[in-house]
C-alpha cells in the first residue's frame, strides 16, 4: 500500500463516495466473521455490512491484475498470504518494476485499524483501498478505468448487482475490497492458545519469560504494542534515523512534532513480515530487537519511551522466542482467504 498526497486522497474519497444513496442490504446472506477467543467485533460501516457476495466480490478484485494499468499487478502482488499479507521485499514493485514508496504492511486484523497507511493519511478502509490504483509507482491506473473493466466482466456485473444492488462503480469497488480485507482476522497463534485459551503448555519457558519481559517496565514494549492486535495504532518516532528523508506523519499534519512518526505496527505474525520498519531497512527480527535495545538514534522528536534497554543475550533470545510465538499458521494457510 503506497502513500498519496492529501489532494489525491480527497479525489479518491469523492470518487468512492459517489453521488448515490447508500444501498440497502440485499437478500445476500450475512458473512459471519470467525473471531478468535478474546476478539471483539470490529467496527463495520452501516453502508458496507459484510455479506457473502460482498466478500466474494472483494476477493476477486483483490487478486485481479486488471486493477493495474497494464494488468500485471494486483493487491496480492504486494500483500502475500504466506507473509501474513505483507511483502518480503523492503519496497514492493509496481507496474514496470517501479519501486514503491514505503514497505507494505501486513493486512492481518486491518478491520480493527483506526487509520490507514503508515502515516495515518486515510481515515477509512474504504478510501484506502483505492489509493494504490492511482499511485504511479503501484498500479498507475485510474478508478474510472478499473470500473470500465469491471463493467465488461459478467461476473463482476452479476456480483455487484447481488452484493450492492447496482452496476459496478467506484462505490462498489471500494466497498467490496474493504469487505474482503475485513475478513483477514488473525488470532490463533500459540500465544493465543496460552493466553486466551488457558493452555499453559502452548508456550515453552523461554517464550513465557519473553512475554513477561515484553510486558515489563524494563522494556515498555506493551505500552505501544498493546491490546489484541499488539498495537495501539498510535504514531511514534522510534529513532530509526537522526534525519529522516521521509518525514512520516508530518507529511499529513504539517506539525513539526510529528516528524519521523509512523504508525505502530501490529506484532502478530511478525516472524513472517520481514523486512521491518516503514522503509524495510531492518532485515531481521533480531536486528529489530537490537535497534530497540540500543535506544535508537537521537533526534529531537524521538519518543521518550525509546531508551537503551541493556538486555542480556538470554533476554534478547527470550524476547525473540516470544515474538515468534505470535505466528498464526492457520492464517497463512486459510483457504478462504486464497483466490
In short:
By secondary structure, the chain is mostly helical.
Please write out the topology:
Layout: H1 6-17, H2 52-62, H3 125-128, H4 131-134, H5 143-151, H6 154-164, H7 170-182, H8 190-195, H9 205-214, H10 221-224, E1 235-236, H11 250-253, E2 262-263, H12 285-294, H13 313-324, H14 329-333
Antiparallel strand pairs: 1-2
Tell me what the structure shows.
The protein is mainly alpha-helical and about 350 residues long. The chain folds into two domains: about 180 residues, Cytochrome Bc1 Complex, Chain D, domain 2; about 140 residues, Cytochrome c-like domain (Cytochrome Bc1 Complex, Chain D, domain 2, Orthogonal Bundle), CATH 1.10.760.10. Helix content is about 35%, strand content about 0%. It has 14 helices and two strands; from the N terminus they run H-H-H-H-H-H-H-H-H-H-E-H-E-H-H-H. The chain has a two-stranded antiparallel sheet with strand order 1-2. Helix 2 packs antiparallel against helix 6, helix 2 crosses helix 7 and helix 9 packs across helix 13. The N terminus is likely disordered.
Amino acid at each position: 500500500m503506497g502513500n498519496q498526497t492529501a489532494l489525491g486522497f480527497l479525489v479518491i474519497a469523492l470518487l468512492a463516495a459517489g453521488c448515490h444513496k447508500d444501498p440497502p442490504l440485499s437478500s445476500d446472506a450475512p458473512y459471519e466473521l470467525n473471531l478468535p477467543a478474546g476478539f471483539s467485533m470490529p467496527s463495520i460501516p452501516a453502508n458496507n455490512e459484510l455479506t457473502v457476495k460482498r466478500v466474494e466480490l472483494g476477493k476477486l478484485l483483490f487478486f485481479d491484475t486488471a486493477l493495474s494499468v497494464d494488468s500485471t499487478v494486483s493487491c496480492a502482488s504486494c500483500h502475500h498470504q504466506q507473509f501474513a499479507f505483507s511483502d518480503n521485499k523492503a519496497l514492493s514493485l509496481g507496474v514496470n518494476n517501479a519501486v514503491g514508496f514505503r514497505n507494505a504492511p501486513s493486512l492481518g486484523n486491518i478491520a480493527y485499524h483506526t487509520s490507514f497507511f503508515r502515516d495515518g493519511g486515510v481515515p477509512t478502509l474504504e478510501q484506502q483501498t483505492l489509493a494504490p490504483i492511482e499511485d504511479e509507482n503501484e498500479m498507475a491506473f485510474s478508478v474510472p478505468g478499473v470500473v470500465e473493466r469491471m463493467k465488461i466482466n459478467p461476473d463482476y456485473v452479476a456480483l455487484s448487482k447481488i452484493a450492492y444492488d447496482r452496476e459496478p462503480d467506484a462505490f462498489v469497488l471500494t466497498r467490496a475490497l474493504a469487505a474482503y480485507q475485513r475478513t483477514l482476522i488473525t488470532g490463533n497463534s500459540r500465544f493465543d492458545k496460552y493466553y486466551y485459551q488457558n493452555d499453559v503448555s502452548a508456550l515453552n519457558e523461554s517464550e513465557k519469560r519473553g512475554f513477561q519481559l515484553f510486558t515489563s517496565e524494563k522494556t515498555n514494549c506493551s505500552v505501544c504494542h498493546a491490546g489484541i492486535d499488539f498495537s495501539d495504532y498510535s504514531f511514534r518516532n522510534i529513532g530509526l534515523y537522526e534525519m529522516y528523508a521521509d518525514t512520516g506523519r508530518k507529511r499529513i499534519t504539517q506539525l513539526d512534532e510529528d516528524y519521523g512518526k509512523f504508525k505502530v505496527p501490529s506484532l502478530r505474525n511478525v516472524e513472517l513480515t520481514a523486512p521491518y520498519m516503514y522503509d524495510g531497512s531492518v532485515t531481521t527480527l533480531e536486528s529489530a530487537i537490537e535497534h530497540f535495545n540500543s535506544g535508537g538514534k537521537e533526534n529531537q522528536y524521538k519518543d521518550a519511551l525509546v531508551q537503551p534497554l541493556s538486555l542480556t543475550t538470554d533476554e534478547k533470545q527470550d524476547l525473540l522466542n516470544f515474538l515468534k510465538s505470535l505466528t498464526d499458521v492457520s492464517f497463512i494457510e486459510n483457504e478462504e482467504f486464497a483466490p
